[in-house]
């Protein structure tokens, strides 16, 4: 078999393999990838490129290597979906840089983030004054999330009907169906008070997939699909 034909066949096989691996790993934007997932993507691509161009390399061994490199992040993703503690270890937590308009210097040092870098990221968000920021945090994917003070936010429809809106970032109190004790302490809310808020909305704790509480005490709830379907027969899971 001519070398050029062998290279074409190997390349087609590897492209199909990469397509299957990509579908298994799921849909994520490049900016949403963790550092580990980014490194795995580069490595798998490099292995595929080397295998397609070097006929002396074993295609079987190369594919086995690609499967191993792809299986690890897939396994980590599956475990992360079921364990918030494991997810925090692997992907890390968001770090607050600005809270109530005040820059938290120790968190900047912790993330090895200079003030110049913080100001640069704020400018990319069209924010040119730190004093305009109510809350800003560095997410686990390296993206800076910014909440402007109420006076600096664009005018919204609900502003016409409310004299004052809550300016603080809401706090997650339930994630993946599990209560977050440290966040409850942060907003001085006991478990019993949270249960009461949920019951006021007609929900039990085991039915809630995600819940967040605003500074005003208002709670927003997202229910597991199976409970939503039982409450609303016309509800269909997309």
Describe it.
It is a single chain. Helix 1 packs antiparallel against helix 2 (35-53). This protein is of the alpha+beta class and 238 residues long. It folds into 3 domains: 3-88; 95-160, CRO Repressor (2-Layer Sandwich); 171-231, bsu07140 like domains (CRO Repressor, 2-Layer Sandwich). The strands form 2 sheets. A 4-stranded antiparallel sheet has the order 2-1-3-4. The chain is built from 9 helices and 8 strands. Strand 7 and strand 8 form a beta hairpin.
What is the count of β-strands? 8
Strand content: 15-25%
Write down the Rg: 24 Å
The strand line-up of the biggest sheet is: 2-1-3-4
Task: Give the integer mean of the pLDDT values.
Answer: 79
What summary fits the major beta sheet? 4 strands, antiparallel
Order of SSEs: HHHHEEHHEEEEHHEEH
Uncertain spans: none
Classify the secondary structure makeup into a structural class: alpha+beta
Helix share, percent = 40-55%
Number of domains: 3
- Identify the overall geometry: extended
What is the distance, rounded to the nearest whole angstrom, between the alpha carbons of the first and last residues?
Answer: 49 Å
* Helix segment tally: 9
């Amino acid at each position: 078999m001519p070398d050029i034909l062998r290279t074409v066949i190997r390349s087609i096989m590897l492209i199909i393999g990469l397509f299957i691996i990509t579908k298994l790993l799921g849909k994520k934007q490049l900016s949403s990838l963790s550092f580990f997932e980014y490194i795995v993507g580069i490595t798998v691509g490099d292995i595929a490129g080397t295998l397609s161009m070097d006929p002396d390399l074993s295609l079987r061994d190369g594919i086995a290597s690609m499967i191993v490199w792809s299986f690890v992040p897939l396994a980590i993703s599956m475990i992360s979906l079921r364990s918030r503690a494991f997810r925090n270890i692997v992907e890390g937590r968001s770090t607050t840089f600005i809270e109530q308009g005040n820059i938290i210097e120790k968190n900047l040092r912790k993330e090895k983030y200079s003030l110049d870098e913080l100001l640069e990221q704020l400018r990319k968000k069209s924010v040119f004054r730190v004093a305009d920021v109510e809350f800003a945090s560095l997410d686990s994917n390296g993206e800076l999330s910014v909440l402007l003070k109420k006076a600096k936010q664009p005018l919204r429809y609900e502003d016409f009907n409310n004299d004052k809106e809550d300016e603080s970032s809401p706090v997650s109190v339930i994630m993946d169906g599990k209560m977050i004790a440290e966040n409850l302490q942060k907003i001085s809310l006991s478990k019993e008070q949270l249960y009461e808020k949920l019951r006021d909305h007609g929900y039990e704790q085991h039915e809630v997939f995600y819940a967040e509480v605003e500074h005003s005490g208002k709670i927003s709830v997202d229910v597991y699909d199976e409970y939503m379907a039982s409450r609303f027969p016309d509800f269909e899971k997309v």
